[in-house]
Amino acid sequence: MPTTCVVGILWGDEGKGKVIDYLAADTDFVVRFGGGHNAGHTLVLPSGKLVLHLVPSGIVHAHTVNVIGNGVVVDPIHLVGEIDKLRQRGLRVELGQNLLLSERAHVILEAHRQQDHWHEQLRGSGKIGTTGRGIGPAYADRCSRIGLRLGDLLRPERLRSGLAAMVQQKNAWFGPSGLPPLDLEVMYRDLLAAGEKLRPGIVDAGAVLRRAHAAGQRILIEGAQGCLLDVEQGTYPFVTSSHASTGGAFSGTGLPPHAMRTVGIAKAYATRVGEGPFPTELKDELGNRLRIAGNEFGSTTGRPRRCGWFDSVAVRYSGAVSGVTELVLTNLDVLRGFPLRIAVAYRLPDGRTTTELPAFDLDQCVPEYVDLPGFTEDLQQVRQFAALPQNAQRYVQAIEQHTGLPVRTVSVGPGRDQVIVR
Ligand code: IMP
User: Fold this and answer.
1) What is the CATH topology of the domain spanning 266-421?
2) 260 CA distance to ligand 1 centroid (A)?
3) Can you name the residues that pair with 3 across neighbouring β-strands?
4) What is the DSSP letter of 296?
5) Which residue, 56, 85, 217, 326, shows the most beta carbons closer than 10 Å to its own?
6) CA-CA distance, 365 to 351, in Å (whole number)?
7) In this predicted structure, what is the pLDDT of residue 1?
8) What pLDDT does 260 receive?
9) CB 136 within 8 A of CB 241
10) Which CATH architecture has domain 106-198?
11) What separation in Å is there between the alpha carbon of 332 and the centre of ligand 1?
């Protein structure tokens, strides 16, 4: 199937960047469909580490066209800066050539960033732990139909009238709420300037992709965040504001839903950044050890990630809602020297047991586990499944058994070549 969609199976940070980098070698297009610069995809290249926030991971391959789809929210100032940084690293980034931006993608403004912080402060102890990038407020404006799209930045009259409507609405409450009132003229000038810089890249990206799809070109759709951060399917309200599971790949690119293969990226253990329920979380010294062994610190915000056991209840759920047919298991090498456990069911607050992910009271569910023997060998040089230590093989097989999904690829280190394909 020429179109493959790659999604994170839990709360993001599953190592999608590396997997997409690996798959992009055989791909014509790499497409982002949702989220914004809240994402952080880390690639370890021969030239060193590279963290991408908005630009799709295919940018490091000379032959791929990279597309920021209509479902993404774009901070134009951030994007211009990210492109500059990539060029400084010696990468070719040519708008309109190897980087296309959907004219339908909505714009994140400084005002959205301020709103994001303001909302978080008001939530107090119920805060979500957002990345503070203005993602939620930008999507909220899209739904309220006062958002601006990238194509507006190229149309001065539309931009001015759209901005005027937005400024009027926001200033009605910004001042009284202690947020600095918006200055229409300054925003208009800055957005026009950003639009000029991005102009060659702003196109009808959906039409480009549909033509490519019809011509049989290979398209890789790059999910951001993870299925459990999906605004509808995830652990609401502790979610992001976009459709991070496969559903968002159709509405967020303009590609049709048929003929798409979906691959789920799962870490060999579980992590989460920010607030929200996490049934298999390790709040003890073992969790600290795992954080250090896996270098589990956010690539966008640097925050320590919460760590826990592999959760097959959550993975099965996300796989089902996203139409995942296979898993890529990342970071298996990190579990060297750790005991191995897999959650296979939850005990609900009323005493019943379930293997379905509940929509409510997830924080009160107690996981039921199976324990497996660990391994002490270094896996980073292993390239054949049969050459893995027996206990590592058994762990992967147990994950397949409890999730019902085949693990076709195992990653055993951050480098491009540290992959086992079965
Ligand atoms: P927001 O997307 O900034 O609104 O944050 C909402 C939630 O999603 C917070 O818990 C964030 O930590 C989380 N989040 C957003 N983007 C990512 C990501 O790329 N990886 C992991 N967590 C993320």
Assistant:
1) Adenylosuccinate Synthetase; Chain A, domain 3 (3.90.170)
2) 26
3) 219, 260
4) -
5) 56
6) 9
7) 60
8) 85
9) yes
10) Orthogonal Bundle (1.10)
11) 24
The answer to whether the CB of 278 is under 6 A from ligand 1 is no
Residue with the smallest CA separation from ligand 1 atom 23 is: 225
Name residues of the chain where pLDDT drops below 70. Answer: 1
Number of the ligand 1 atom closest to the C-alpha atom of 132: 3
| Residue in 7, 131, 305 to alter for ligand 1 test, most ligand atoms within 8 A of Cβ | 131
Residue nearest to atom 9 of ligand 1 (CA): 130
pTM: 0.94
Q: Mind listing the pLDDT tens digit for each residue in 224-254?
A: 999 999 999 999 999 999 999 999 999 999 9
Give the pLDDT confidence of 94-131 residue by residue, as tens digits.
999 999 999 999 999 999 999 999 999 999 988 999 99
**Is the Cβ atom of 111 under 6 angstroms away from ligand 1?**
no
> For 29-48, what is each residue's pLDDT tens digit?
999 999 999 998 888 888 88
Give the DSSP per-residue string, 298-355. -TTT-PBPEEE-EEHHHHHHHHHHHTEEEEEEE-GGGGTTS-EEEEEEEE-TTS-EES
Amino acid 46: pLDDT: 80
- Report the CATH number of the 3-105+202-262 domain: 3.40.440.10
Q: Is the Cβ atom of 135 under 6 angstroms away from ligand 1? A: yes
Catalytic site residue 41? yes
Domain positions in the chain: 3-105+202-262, 106-198, 266-421
Q: 82: how many CB neighbours lie within 10 A of its CB? A: 19
Q: What is the pLDDT of residue 146?
A: 95
Omega cis (within 30) before 237 = yes
Please tell me if the domain spanning 3-105+202-262 has the same topology as the one spanning 106-198.
Answer: no
11 Cα to the center of ligand 1, angstroms: 8
Annotated catalytic residue, options 13, 21, 75, 311: 13
For ligand 1, whether the C-beta of 248 sits within 6 Å is no
37, 41, 106, 402: the catalytic one is 41
